Amino acid sequence: MDACMQLKFGACVSRFSGGWYQMGMDEVMIDAILQAVCACAAVEAHAKQLRLQRVCLGLAAYFASEQMGTSSLVGSGIEQVLTQIMTNFAGEGTTMQLSCVIINSIAMTSGDMYEEIKTSALLSALKTSVGKMATKKPEEKALKETCAATLEAASSGEDPFDAFSKTVTELDFKFTEWNVDPYPNGVHDLPSNVKEALRKGGKLKVFLPEKEKEEIRWRSSQDLNVFEWCMGNDQDYNNRIPIVRIRNVAKGLVHPALKAAAKKEPRKVAAKFTMCLFGPPNDDFPEGVELPMVAKSQKERDAFVEMMVQWRDAATYNF
After folding, report:
1. From what superkingdom does this record's organism come (predicted)?
2. What 3 state SS string does the chain have?
3. Engineered SS bond to 279: which of 2, 37, 92, 289, CB 3.0-4.6 Å?
4. What is the pTM of this model?
């Protein structure tokens, strides 16, 4: 299930409690959705996409608060998803509230299933994240107190039903942000510095099968709708693909050409410096677009990936 599908589904179920029943859903369907949600959230390329993770958590929290699909969440490794999110977004209010609703709801549904997700890694991430939550505004302080109650219950030696009896298990849909459109005007709503950086572009190294390493120069079109690039001695940006057609920008040694290059230059072509941009077949690229690239530093690599993800999010929102 991709982000767009999840957002549309979220808008439907968020209209009222028991929405899943009104939509004619059964346990099998709910279990399948939650398995897909956990799998989607756990993908490395999605790990730091806050909007996507909020959607995943929102769906999980909704069904958990309805006491539906709990066994599917536990069986799909929800504790690993929660640990990852609370680590990557430590102190972030929305994800913390949703994470706590999931933990609280599982504990109040089944003590045995709660014990399955109660790992030392989860408790450690929960404690650290609660400690980093903001308290300057009254609503921030109240939210932190709510999440601190989950931490206190999780740290106690009481029976889960007693320990979590005063925690929040009802989902406040405003925290899912399903009704928030971050890019109502598409790419025009990107921050000015991001739009400027995209139009300016940059340089990376690309590894293509059966070819030597080449320099790739990339940029966006002026209207921010197309990713353009040229390689080697070419001066014209003749290679083009609409940003909405870019399927993924994956980090690490995720392409055979990168793995082969890493064997020759393990220090320069390491997982922390590499990435690959993927796009489906089109008239210009009948075999599909694959650009296995390496940056000079992890910071440069991460900045490029984050910018591509943000750009694609803006271009594809409600697409």
Report:
1. Eukaryota
2. CCHHHHHHHHHHHCCCCCHHHHCCCCHHHHHHHHHHHHHHHHCHHHCCCHHHHHHHHHHHHHHHHCCCCHHHHHHCCHHHHHHHHHHHCCCCHHHHHHHHHHHHHHHHHCHHHHHHHCCHHHHHHHHHHHHCCCCCCHHHHHHHHHHHHHHHHHHCCCCHHHHCCCCCCCCCHHHCCCCCCCCCCHHHHCCHHHHHHHHHCEEEEECCCCCCCEEEEEEECCCCCEEEEEECCCCCCCEEEEHHHCCEEEECCCCHHHHHHHHHCCCCCCCCCEEEEEECCCCCCCCCEEEEEECCCHHHHHHHHHHHHHHHHHHHCCC
3. 289
4. 0.63
